[in-house]
Structures are given as C-alpha cells and as structure tokens.
Automatic annotation (TrEMBL):
It comes from the Eukaryota. The lineage of its organism: Eukaryota, Viridiplantae, Chlorophyta, core chlorophytes, Trebouxiophyceae. It comes from Chlorella vulgaris. SUPFAM superfamilies: S-adenosyl-L-methionine-dependent methyltransferases. GO terms for molecular function: S-adenosylmethionine-dependent methyltransferase activity. Residues 219-269 form the Methyltransferase type domain. InterPro entries: Methyltransf_11 (IPR013216), SAM-dependent_MTases_sf (IPR029063). This is Methyltransferase type 11 domain-containing protein. Gene3D superfamilies: Vaccinia Virus protein VP39 (3.40.50.150).
C-alpha cells in the first residue's frame, strides 16, 4: 500500500487525472457489459464503426444501432485477420522461388504460360499470354476467354462447392451438372456464360434505383445487392467479382448476402484490396443510398449495363475481414499463386465468406 501511495505521489497531476479517467472508463465499460451478452446488432441497417485502440491496434465495438430486428452478436464471434482462416500459396511461392516468382519473371520477359489448366472451363493445355503488366485482368483462356482474376474466383469456389455438394468438380463448367443454387451478381461476362445453364442459376444486375427489386428489365433481373428480392436461405453459392466496391454500403450488401445464403453456403468474391492497409478506403460518401460527395477523386470502372461506367466507392483494407466476421461469416482469404492454372501476380486475393451454420 505504501509503495502504491509513493507511486501515486510520483505521478504528476496530469498523469493522475489520466489514470482516474482510464479507471472511470474501464468501470463504465464493465458496467455496460454487465447484463448484456455482448454488443448487439440491430438489422437491417448495417454500420460497423471501428476505433483505434490505445496500443495502436484496431477493433470494433460501436455498432451503429438502427432499425428493428435484434440479432445479438457475441464477442467470441468476432475475429481478426490473424484468426480468420487463411489459404496462402503466393507467400509460399515467393519463399520457394524468390521475388519475382518464376512465373512473374517469365511474364516480365514476355513469355507465355504453357500447359495451363483452366479452372473456369476445364480446358487443358492452354497457352496463356499476358499482353501487358495488368496481370490480374489479363491472360485469356483461348476456350472460354476467362482471365486471371476469374480463374482465381474459380480456384477459390471449387473447394467450397465440393464441401457443400460433397462432389469434386474440376472446373466451374462442371457445376452445370450440379443441383446447386447459384447466384451470380452479374448477368454478363465469362462466368455468366459458363454457369448460366446450371439448373438453379440466377443472375442479376443493378439497373437503376427507380426499379423495384426482382423486376425484369429488357430480359435482365434487377437487384440491389443491399436489399434483394430473394428469400432467406436460398443460395448455396454467391459469386461476385469486383461488385462490392461499387456499392455505396458494401457491408449492408454483405449482410444481405448472408441473409440469402443457406447456412454453410459461401460468397466467393474479389474486390480491390490493399493488404498493406488496415482500413477500408472510402472514396465517396453516401446518405440513404445516394451519393453525397466524393472524398477521393472519382474512379469509374467499365460496366456492361452502365455505359458511363460505375463509381468505385471503396478500396478494401484488412479490416474487411474483421467486419465480415462480425456479420457472422467465417472468412477464408486466399492469396493465390497457381501458375499451372494461369493464376499469377501478387494481387491474386480471393475472399470466401461462409454463413455460419
Ligand atoms: Zn477456360
């Protein structure tokens, strides 16, 4: 006790004030948790607010409370990047072959990848050429025209469908033989061309805010991924390639995807992702689903429906994994490097968010 008193005296008034404030904050925090099971999420308005820890870390505690139904979120359901399941092959390749890996090195010398198996269409012995350094969006399969990033989605999706269906599929094309309920968030492009004959395949596009969910416009189903027309627990597999980054409230969309996935079902997706950034870079602010102003200079991506392109709202950082875990997903991050399947380049990240059973 004497030692404690002496230690207290040694503190300046400011330090004592800080210590008292910390003690008060801790007491209030413990009190606030006393008769709660944990932070609660009130759907459907999703807003995850992160805050900096004193030690420089980052965590989530303040969930924006909005609307009606209560869905308690237990603290032990939260996870971090470290605890989310990871599937890293790129790092192993760098460890084995050095940087640049032998495949990237071959590309830098303008040489093609040979004897490639395409996990999208199942074609063997492909010669994959990369006409420029945009490795992620290049390297076409001569049979199905899939490029690097689409093969990454296939590579990550195939183990998921094997787990869900209990059958091994060699390529996405084989899913046409399956009875899986598949939702593609795009109605154009190579993956649509490959999958659209599957018996329980559904696709949609975002057409306009003036169109109601589920409407068919010129033969295409309109859905806003933040609020779709699908029933709960409908799909085994949801696929989205570079879609979430163009949605004003991407976590609202993730929450909606969770609703329409069956328990154990997976959302396999790619987004613009910066693995060295902790935080998502929000590039435009939105209120009630409408663009308010640009925080960063606008970037527009080409789109099959919208001729002027679609705005990039978010470039995702590592916090996206924490946020998905908080939305009750198990998350697997794939950092791929599978030269034999035409998958190269250090930006080969694919996320799998599986709805917890
Ligand atoms: Zn192919």
């Amino acid at each position: 006790m004497k030692q404690t008193t002496r230690a207290l005296r040694a503190l300046s008034t400011k330090q004592r004030g800080l210590a008292a404030a910390s003690l008060l904050a801790l007491t209030l925090f413990i009190f606030s948790r006393w008769d709660n099971d944990g932070p609660e999420y009130y759907g459907p308005a999703v807003g995850l607010e992160g805050f900096e820890d004193d030690d420089g870390g980052y965590s989530y505690g303040a969930l924006e409370l909005g609307a009606t139904s209560r869905q308690p979120l237990q603290p032990n359901e939260m996870c971090s990047w470290d605890t989310a399941q990871e599937a890293i092959t790129f790092d192993k390749a760098v460890e084995k072959d050095g940087w640049p890996t032998k495949y990237e090195h071959m590309i830098s010398e303008s040489r093609a990848l040979r004897h490639v198996f395409c996990p999208v269409c199942g074609a063997h012995d492909q010669v994959i050429r990369f006409p420029n350094r945009n490795l992620r969006e290049e390297g076409r399969c001569s049979k199905c025209s899939s490029f690097n990033r689409l093969r990454q989605i296939a590579e990550a999706a195939l183990p998921e469908v094997q787990r869900i269906a209990g059958i091994r599929f060699n390529s996405l094309k084989d899913l046409v033989q399956s009875n899986l309920a598949i939702y593609n968030t795009q109605c154009a492009g190579v993956l649509h061309n490959i999958l659209h004959e599957a018996p329980r395949y559904v696709c949609s596009e975002f057409i306009s805010t003036d169109v109601s969910a589920g409407s068919i416009v010129h033969g295409v189903q309109h859905e806003d991924l933040q609020r779709t027309s699908f029933n709960d627990n409908t799909f085994d597999l949801v696929i989205s390639g570079e879609v979430l980054s163009h949605i004003p409230s991407p976590y609202q969309a993730h929450y909606e995807v969770r609703r329409i996935l069956k328990p154990g079902g997976s959302h396999v997706f790619t987004v613009p992702f910066s693995p060295t950034d902790l935080h998502d870079q929000v590039r435009a602010s939105v209120e009630e689903g409408r663009l308010v102003h640009h925080i960063e200079p606008p970037i527009y991506a080409g789109d099959a429906i919208h001729k002027n392109g679609i705005l990039l709202y978010t470039i995702f950082g590592k916090e996206t994994v924490d946020k998905l875990c908080m939305l009750d997903f198990n998350v697997t991050t794939h950092h791929l490097h599978v030269g034999a399947h035409g998958i190269i380049g250090k930006n080969a990240w694919v996320f799998v968010a599986t709805k917890r059973v």
